[in-house]
Fold each of these.
Amino acid sequence: MRIALMGAMPEEIEPLLERIDDVCLTEYGENRYYEGRFAGKEVVVAYSKIGKVFAAMTAGMLIEKFRCDTLLFSGVAGAIREDLHIGDLIMAESLCQHDLDITAFGHPYGYVPEGKVFVPTDERLRKLARKVAEAKGIDLKEGIIATGDQFVADPERKAWIGETFGAAALEMEGAAVAVVCDALRVPFFVLRAISDSADMDAGFDFDAFLDKSARISADFILEMVRLLPDSEG
Ligand code: ADE
């Protein structure tokens, strides 16, 4: 088993890198990939840069060039659902692209031919996350996460995304990773800690809570890695 640990921003992977041993750095395609070990497992850590294009490229590289067979994404998100507060953890049941729009041709939002509106995450990884949450007494939330190339700081846009997709939280990379992993049949998991509420204060809150929320997510992800079976049967 070789586990990809991915974030979008340096702040999202720094808490992972701090705890990885035997690190070997490779620079490729203007990204840095850190191969190393955690809890006796091989891991490859990378951040993509912000947005769907960079995220898709990095996920593809982690799988095809660095031969990862499982991908765990860690980072922060804006809350849509009212029960989500800054610092809360949410795992994606499935992910969708809120900015994908060919409705002019009669298709639903988030759909293109041969694609899926909602791409589900791996059920076994979700079960493992519930186990970690229970053991640590963490109230891990679950829901649909909506992705788009847009930092949302607007109550109307946020409400539209919530209503249109039934989304609980939003961010800028998860669905791109989901599409790549789904196509390549690689089990994947997306975890986000809330950094803001995607409203007028979102820019300010994001800056204030990015580091702390990113660390909450990264610590949880590493607990999952610790509990992953050493090899998949
Ligand atoms: N990631 C964290 N907060 C976000 C927001 N408000 N919009 C998009 N991505 C985010």
Amino acid sequence: MQQKDRDRIVEVFDTTLRDGEQTPGISFTKEQKEAIARQLDKLGVDVIEAGFPISSKKDKEAVKSISHLGLSARICGLARLLTSDIDACIDCDVDMIHIFVPSSEIQREHTTGMSEDAVKEQTREMTEYVKSHGFQCMFSAMDATRTELRFLRELYRIAEEAGADIINVPDTVGVSEPFRMYELVSEIYKVVKVPISIHCHNDFGLAVANSLAAVKAGASQVQVSVNGLGERAGNADLAETVMGLNAIYGLRTRIKTEYLFETAKLVERFSGVQIPVTQPVVGENAFSHESGIHAHGVIKRSNTFEPGIMTPEMVGHRRRIVLGTHTGRHSIEKKLSEIGMSASREQVEEILERVKELSASGKKVTDDDLYSIAEVVTGEVAKHERAVVLKELSVMTGNNLIPTASLKAIVKGRECKSAQMGIGPVDAAIKAIQDIIKGEIGGDLQLKDFRIEAITGGSDALAEVIVGVQRGDRVVTARGVRGDIVMASVEAFINAVNRLMQG
Ligand code: KIV
Ligand code: ZN
């Protein structure tokens, strides 16, 4: 029997590799799927929906190999109410088979052409088929939120009687809203004893809110995807849903929330779908502050202008004080103190004015920009020599060779060399600098942010690269501008490193 109390653990069912991969334009390689599955397991999801085995040979192979990775999460495969689909899942050695059938009148009429009776009969038969082969069975009435409640109740009861271990309520076209969702799941909760899962699409931006409402009404599992990937506007976002459950409802999941940010970044990289800066929890700006009033408040006490019930540390993210047109005095003073620079009140005002001017001209103001301005205004030259000075860089790239970079630099007065391979020439060059620095300065410098923009048009465009480099708990941003992307990247990285060495 389900518990409707606040102590229960809400299960997380991740569908990044199934519904997420149905995002128009996305196709993960088998290796990427395995890496995502491992990351989801590290994150602590309860179920990984690894794919739809009957849909392609490639999907089937990937589901099978994920089933054999030895993960703690249960592995699930998707199937229509057809023995061929279910057999394909069985061949993949999954733990759970997720069977689904269109249940709303509009979908029945225009997709399968099945009558209500035929749907009921197939539901019973195919649920029994899955169970007779010894697999866990999840049953979904597709388009549940547009299905007549009378029919939905009957269907879920049939699935339960036939042995389904869990039933799923999909808001397939994302048309529900939290109050309606609460009522619907409450009604279903009255007629079934097996756990209820919820699967919400985001057509009106309500997928997370609807999932939370469903949990409030008794659902004990949420179906989510990393970065909200999925059909059309996507599915309920994993990070938002989990943090909503944890921080707002005070409910527990098995998710190790400190891995949420790195999980989002991994899927961003593999999917090529960039996380919007304003994305809750994992977006670049989720814990960033620019305006003077906010930054001042947060520097004093973080929960003045952050939720407090969710901190960057909880989700593996970081807080940033960003420089721009709205920056205030306190942000400048804090950043200068981090590298041991001091400035009089008048000098701070002057620095502030110049930072705002730079920002108003359309430039992103990096920490390196701020320090350069401060050096000019205070007349205080850097306390240390530049720790890293680039001497030579050559890169080789092409269609038939692995990109390789050879680099020579003076690091703290000593000449160092390294040659590294990478995914592309920029990656190879950054790896070469990291290699040199690791030997001379210590291995704790990490590239956190990397953005390339062309600031003029055409193939001879000037490339502007802005990086964030982390050392310990400090991150410094810096820029490189060159006609050559690799050089701009290396310049930005070295500028950031040199500033970090000043701290
Ligand atoms: O959105 C949906 O209805 C689905 C089903 C397969 C559960 O993805
Ligand atoms: Zn879906």
